[in-house]
Amino acid sequence: MRLSTLRYYFREAFLSIWRNSWLSVASIGVVAVSLLILGSSLLLVVNANRIAQGLESSVEISVFIKDETTPDHVRDIKFEIEARPDVARVEYVPKEQALKEMMENLGDDQDILAGLEEKNPLPDAFRIKTHTVDQVAPLAAWLEAFARVDQVRYGQGVVEKLLTISRWVRTAGAVTMVLLGVAAIFLIATTIRLSVFARRKEIGIMKFLGATNWFVRFPFLLEGMLLGLAGSFVAVVVIYFGYLSLIGNINLSLPFMRLVTERSLIISLMEGLLALGLAIGATGSMISMRRFLKA
Amino acid sequence: MIQFNNVTKIYANGIKAINDVTLRIRKGEFVFLVGPSGAGKSTLTKLLYREEIPSRGQIIFNGKSLARIRPREVPYLRRKIGMVFQDFRLFPQKTVFENVSFALEVTGASNREIRKVVPVVLNLVGLIEKADSFPDYLSGGEQQRVCIARAIVNNPVLIIADEPTGNLDPDTSWDLMNLLLDINRRGTTIIMATHAWDIVDAMKKRVVALKDGRVVRDEMRGVYGHEA
Q1: Which CATH number covers residue A132?
Q2: Are residues A164 and A142 in the same domain?
Q3: Does residue A165 sit in the same domain as residue A43?
């Protein structure tokens, strides 16, 4: 392709955007909003998944044992648990150790537990880890059947809830994004249709001068792509700086929340958004050209 | 060079614009197409640059059947045909030079070629001094000469002129005819649809008269005649 032809394409595209400036701004805005929603929900999903993963790896079953159980019995139970293939690790925690850990956790407030050493109310317990999360619930049910087992506890529901939220965000984000994306495509199609209409005479002249279809179409395709790219650029800038300041705030106020901060992941997400904006713009112009610029 | 074999064109609305026309035009000829409005002159030219496809019969242009060429080849066919219209059809926002050079740009010609060829053509039509003017600041005759410059800049084998003098006064019309004659002498075939009987009668060129879509007269050194 000749350089001057390329220059011609860009000049025509920019001229059209300028001529329909209001509609162009509207197209850019809709692309920006739809990609903003997509980008934010993607970030939310990525973070929710990350937190869920962290929880999953720390899910533990606590098995409280009835008070009068003899050490022999404890040993038997431990052997029986360890024999199961889904058990990764079993740890016996006697009540004295449990109390000590509790006091450590309380730090400065440990006075409230003072005097409990003589009459420890805590039960002896096993802490069990499984290989995967879905093994937790069946194993807990199996453990409850033991005669000497008093209570079985694990983070019932927390992991499931988080995964549900993440799934819900993903679905809602996808639906909103698809709806707004379609709206963006059609708004761009309308903008391009107006451009084509404003220049139908020139297009006619070009045709009888022997211009190929692509020579006629390319400026319009470029116009749509530029609109899509501009919209996604707005979205990317807003998301990028918004997320950076969110990370800063969360690190200050909720330091235990570990957000996704890998630059490479964020950058590739932004690149994806830009590419999507370009695709939305191109699709919009193609729809218009199929209908209004037949050979 | 051009051959119509029993060509019929019926439009979608049922109007038979061309009815069983057989016509042969040799390279280098100057042919007037005459006849009343609606006789089929425009349709005949549209069939030539493949704006329309014949309903029956076939058209051979430069040894190729126009019905057989694919849509993607149509632009390349049109680059061999220069078009001149009654309403000029220039780009108002482009200068004279740009209007002419655009016909080359469309074909992907290089900048060097454009800078070389366009002044030669503008010189030929006598508009080299107006190269940087915009069409709206030119007289009708000058605009039509820009149109001719644009039509010949691609070195076409055929020029189709559809009532090129329709919007011009008699003196300007004759200037234009002399320009077309000049181009014709250089070997370019010219087909000109017209109502200007005085020009047709004075030029003594081949006249093809159409009426109701049929060729009713075809004379080598003809006159406008009584049919129209």
Answers
A1: 3.30.70.3040
A2: no
A3: yes
CA A73, A78, A81, A82 torsion-angle sign:
negative
Return the amino acid letter for B68. Answer: R
Same domain, A18 and A97: no
Residue A262 and residue A122 share a domain: no
B73's CB contacts (< 8 A; 6+ apart) are none
Which of A154, A171, A192 terminates a domain? The answer is A154
- Mean pLDDT over B74-85 rounds to 93
Specify whether the CB–CB gap between A188 and A27 falls below 8 A. Answer: yes
Co-location of A78 and A221 in the same domain:
no
Among chain B, residues having any CB pair with chain A shorter than 8 Å are 49, 51, 71-72, 74-79, 83, 89, 91, 102-103, 105-108, 110-111, 150, 154
Give B64's contacts (C-beta < 8 A, 6+ positions apart): none
Instruction: Flag if A215 and B106 touch (Cβ within 8 Å).
Output: yes
List of chain A residues whose C-beta atoms are within 8 Å of the C-beta of residue B103 = 209-210
Question: Is B91 close to A205, i.e. CB distance below 8 A?
Answer: yes
Name the token pair of A279: 């695709």
A-chain CB neighbours of B105 within 8 Å are 4-5, 8
Per the structure, how many domains does chain A have? 2
**Do A179 and A283 lie in a common domain?**
yes
Strand partners, A152: A63
Domain boundary among A154, A183, A217: A154
Instruction: Spell out a b/e string for A226-238, using b for 16 or more CB atoms within 10 Å of the CB, else e.
Output: bbbbbbbbbbbeb
Q: Do A211 and A255 contact (CB within 8 A), yes or no?
A: no
Instruction: Tell me what ipTM this predicted complex has.
Output: 0.86
Pair A190, A234 in one domain? yes
Residue A88, domain extent: 60-154
Residue A295 pLDDT level (bands cut at 50, 70, 90): very low
pLDDT at B33 over 90: yes
Same domain, A228 and A175: yes
Going by the DSSP 8-state scheme, the letter that residue A292 receives in this structure is: H
Instruction: Check residue A154 and give left, alpha or beta (phi > 0: left; psi -120 to 50: alpha).
Output: beta
pLDDT in tens, B113-128: 999 999 999 999 999 9
CB contact (8 A) between residue B79 and residue A201: no
Strand ranges (E), B71-224: 81-85, 158-162, 189-193, 206-211, 214-219
State whether B89 and A205 contact (CB < 8 Å): yes
| pLDDT at position A159 | 64
Q: Kindly determine whether residue A8 and residue B105, on different chains, have CB atoms separated by under 8 Å.
A: yes
Query: How, if at all, do strands B158-162 and B189-193 pair?
Result: parallel
Question: Which of B76, B89, B91 has the CB atom closest to A210's CB atom?
Answer: B76
